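Go through this pair.

…
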Amino acid sequence: MIAIPVKTDRNDAPVAPLFGKAKWFAFIDAAGAVEVAQNRLQSGRDVVGWLQEKGVKRLIFAHMGGNPFMLLQKAGILCYHAGKERITLSRAVEKLQSGELERVDGSNMAAYVEQSSMHSHAKRGEHHHGAHKH
């Protein structure tokens, strides 16, 4: 199963700019059937759990923070960057299938994933806020 955050629930919606805040996600099964579902979750962490429940193995994204990325890595979901230009759902899937999308992992994540102030704690599963006594 492939997941892609999209801007609308239309058939060939553009890829949404943000991962966790995307209003819709497209799910593409092995036969190529597309289901678009509304994202009612509030955080990237919750979205990662939802994707795991749906059996997602690959994700195409445009922009993502470090914490959701680390959770996706931990979940074994392969991540692919959609590129910097506007791209539609169908074109993103075509590019994935033809090997044109860059796979993002720990070795190249700095080029594609936004580093937050919490990224150093994400590997240990800690949340920055509340992790320290001040």
